[in-house]
Amino acid sequence: MALSNLKKEMQLMETSCQVVDEGWPEAWYMVPDAEVANQKCENRLSPNKPVDVAAMRALGLCYWKMDADTYSYPVKSIPWDPSEAADPRLAALRDDRGYSYADVLTIHPDFLPNFDTHVKNFFTEHIHDGEEIRYILGGSGFFDVRDPHDNWVRVHVKKGDLMTLPEGIYHRFTCDETDSIHAMRLFIGTPCWTPINRFTTDTENHPSRKQYVCLYCTPQGLNDDQGETKC
After folding, report:
1. Rg of the Cα atoms in the chain
2. Does residue 21 sit within a domain?
3. What is the pLDDT of residue 192?
4. DSSP string spanning 19-82?
5. Which of 1, 47, 105, 110 has its CA 20 to 30 A from that of 141?
6. Does 61 fall in a domain?
7. Residues of the chain with pLDDT under 70
8. Does any domain span residue 230?
9. Which helix (H) or strand (E) holds 139?
10. pLDDT value of position 222
């Protein structure tokens, strides 16, 4: 039985199929922003209120477990050609989802000038007018995403995690207390990393936000979804 499961796992790692639910990163509801003294801490509610995979899928998140140990990537490469992917799972994902651009960054005081300023800026709540894709090659950090009731859900991503956030979702990112994350960003077509910041822009009337609300936050959208991913 163990050999059979291992064979299935090895076969999975050569496809673009998402992993089963128990393989997803841990997630939980955060304390209100006014109670966040350090953005890099876990900032859980007390008692802890976990968020399960069905709830993460219902928000539009998608997840793949990747092999970040076997394959090596540069500390920094802007851009990095995704056609060079030696990992068959990454290549399958690239082809299935049409990712034509990638770059690789290391967020660490030794590799990112003005590290503290950048990490503070990453934590500004915003949306994008396209899907956000992050493959964690090393280290760890937190993606925070808003649920339909405007509460923060914190997702702890680590080495080997590849997660996508849908266009128009309110989110932010931070390193955790290790102060180190090595990540690949992927994009369809010409990349545009400029955030559309909430509260300084009329994001509620932005087409990407309206699309997200229609798909994931309205009663009809939630009913159509029924906990299934739209990926």
Report:
1. 17
2. yes
3. 80
4. PPGGGSPPEEEBPPGGG-S-TTS--B-SS--B--HHHHHHTT-EEEE--TTTS---S-BSS--G
5. 47
6. yes
7. 1-15, 19-20, 219-231
8. no
9. strand 132-146
10. 47
Give the single-character DSSP code of 110: T
Task: Tell whether pTM > 0.85.
Answer: yes
What is the pLDDT at residue 47? 98
CATH number at residue 201: 2.60.120.10
Contacts of 44 (CB under 8 A, 6+ apart): 28, 29, 30, 31, 154
Residues forming a β-bridge with 127: 196
Tokens read off for 84: 């060079």
Whole-number pLDDT of residue 18: 76
Of 186, 146, 168, 138, nearest to 230 (Cα)? 168
CB of 195 within 8 A of CB of 167? no
Residue 231: inside a domain: no
Give the integer Cα–Cα distance in Å for 125 and 47.
25
Cα 170 from Cα 178, distance rounded (Å): 25
pLDDT at 92: 93
Domain that holds residue 112: 2-225
**Which amino acid is located at 145 in the chain?**
V
Q: Which two tokens stand for residue 203?
A: 């994001």
